[in-house]
Specification:
By secondary structure, this protein is of the alpha+beta class. It has one domain (about 15-105). Helix content is about 25%, strand content about 30%. The chain is built from 3 helices and 4 strands, in the order ββαββαα. It has a 4-stranded antiparallel beta sheet with strand order 2-1-4-3, covered by helices on one side. The longest helix has 13 residues, at about 50-65. The chain is globular, with a radius of gyration of 19 Å. The mean pLDDT is about 90.
């Protein structure tokens, strides 16, 4: 088994997530640290030669969707604001069905709690339908 650097993808791909915050440009409190905002965390893959290049590409992708525009039926000036990168990991396997691209270690939990985290296909569909409404 080949030894891998934890920072470099041997297949040239990285998976990263970033946060975007939604604001109405004319609203007061857009920079209030205690304010509450709609937030999206997007996860994408990027091809890069190293972690630094992957980070720069991830930030560029995140910023590419932050132009202001007129939203809703009333044409309110709005904008998605890039708030930062939350995760960036090298992908160690070639991209194909079943390739592991992310993993996370969790603290020990009761078996009953663990089983509650697993979702059936119908629960996933229900969640997605709820997100679309």
């Amino acid at each position: 088994m080949a030894a891998y650097s934890k920072d470099i993808s041997p297949v040239g791909w990285y998976v990263g997530s970033y946060l975007l915050r939604f604001i109405e440009l004319d609203s007061s409190g857009n920079d209030d640290p205690e304010g509450k905002f709609l937030v999206w965390e997007n996860t994408v893959i990027v091809r890069a030669g190293n972690l630094e290049e992957a980070y720069a590409k991830l930030v560029a992708i995140a910023n590419s969707g932050t132009d202001s525009y007129k939203g809703g039926t009333e044409g309110v000036p709005v904008q998605w604001v890039f708030e930062g990168v939350t995760e960036l990991l090298p992908i160690y396997e070639p991209l194909e069905d079943g390739a592991e691209i992310m993993w996370a270690e969790h603290e020990a939990v009761r078996l009953s709690e663990l089983r509650q985290r697993a979702k059936s296909l119908s629960e996933i569909k229900e969640h997605l339908d709820g997100e679309r409404t």
